[in-house]
């Protein structure tokens, strides 16, 4: 009897391990260029995402604070003017005005970063929501990346949690480091929204994910 129970228990463990492995090995969704990298919350997460885009060999544009109207203008963002707290870097190689197909948001709130762009948490959330709404209406893929770990989390109602609430539930794909998902919050959001979720041990794993997404 004991041997039979051990066999059943062993089989259960094997199935559990297989299920966990399958979830971890889930292929990221396919994405298209041109791609815009941007920030949701103006933290240093955007620097991490951009560096890993460069490492992956991915052609992209970056802007820290685009509006929905500027996004609608496509590559070049129409009348966008670079200045203190407002940056536009074009690496996509696409012709000006070409519609973006993917927008990657680095998720994380920084009062210093928002202040440099003349934003408050309320105006930043409003800006991000308008961007996401435009993307959803125009079939632009929304990717939310939380790459800075537990340091960019907080108690319910904190700036970081409000930024997460503003974008992650509407994302088409969510990527988070394991320490940033210490409480399973991103699992819960992805389960409710139905979006695929990748939990990575280190932010550097994003390089391989990006290469698969845009292959």
Question: What's the tally of helices?
Answer: 8
* Whole-number mean pLDDT: 88
- Which band does the percent of strand residues land in? 15-25%
Shape label: globular
Structural classification: alpha/beta
Helix content: 40-55%
Ends: how far apart?
53 Å
At the fold tier of CATH, the topology name is: Rossmann fold
Please list the strands of the largest sheet in the order they lie side by side: 3-2-1-4-5-6-7
Strand tally, please?
7
Give the topology string: H per helix, E per strand. Answer: HEHEHEEHHEHEHEH
Q: Do you know the CATH architecture?
A: 3-Layer(aba) Sandwich
Radius of gyration equals 19 Å
CATH class: Alpha Beta
Low-confidence stretches: 1-25
Structure, explained:
The chain is an alpha/beta fold. It has a single domain, classed as Rossmann fold (3-Layer(aba) Sandwich), CATH 3.40.50. 41% of the residues lie in helices and 15% in strands. The chain is built from 8 helices and 7 strands, in the order αβαβαββααβαβαβα. It has a 7-stranded mixed β-sheet, sandwiched between helices. Strand 6, helix 7 and strand 7 form a beta-alpha-beta unit. The N terminus is likely disordered.
Could you list some keywords that capture this structure?
215 residues, alpha/beta, Rossmann fold, seven-stranded mixed sheet, 8 helices, globular, disordered N terminus
What would you say about this model in short?
This protein has 215 residues and is an alpha/beta fold. It has eight helices and seven strands; from the N terminus they run αβαβαββααβαβαβα. The chain has a single domain, classed as Rossmann fold, CATH 3.40.50.
């Amino acid at each position: 009897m004991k041997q039979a129970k051990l066999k059943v228990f062993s089989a259960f463990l094997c199935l559990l391990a297989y299920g966990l492995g399958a979830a971890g090995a889930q292929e990221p969704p396919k994405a298209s260029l041109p791609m815009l990298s941007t920030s949701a919350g103006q933290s240093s997460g955007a620097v991490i995402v951009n560096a890993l885009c460069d490492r992956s060999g991915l052609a992209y544009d970056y802007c820290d604070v685009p509006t929905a109207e500027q996004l609608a203008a496509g590559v070049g963002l129409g009348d966008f003017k670079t200045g203190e707290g407002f940056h536009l870097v074009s690496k996509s190689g696409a012709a000006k005005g070409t519609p973006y197909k993917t927008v990657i948001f680095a998720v994380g709130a920084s009062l210093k970063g928002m202040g440099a762009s003349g934003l408050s948490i309320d105006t930043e959330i409003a800006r991000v929501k308008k961007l996401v709404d435009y993307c959803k209406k125009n079939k632009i893929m929304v990717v939310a990346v939380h790459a800075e770990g537990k340091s960019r989390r907080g108690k319910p109602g904190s700036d970081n949690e409000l930024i997460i609430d503003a974008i992650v539930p509407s994302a088409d794909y969510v990527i988070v480091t394991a320490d940033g998902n210490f409480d399973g919050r991103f699992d819960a959001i992805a389960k409710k929204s139905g979006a695929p979720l990748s939990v990575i041990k280190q932010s550097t794993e994003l390089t391989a994910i990006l290469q698969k997404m845009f292959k």
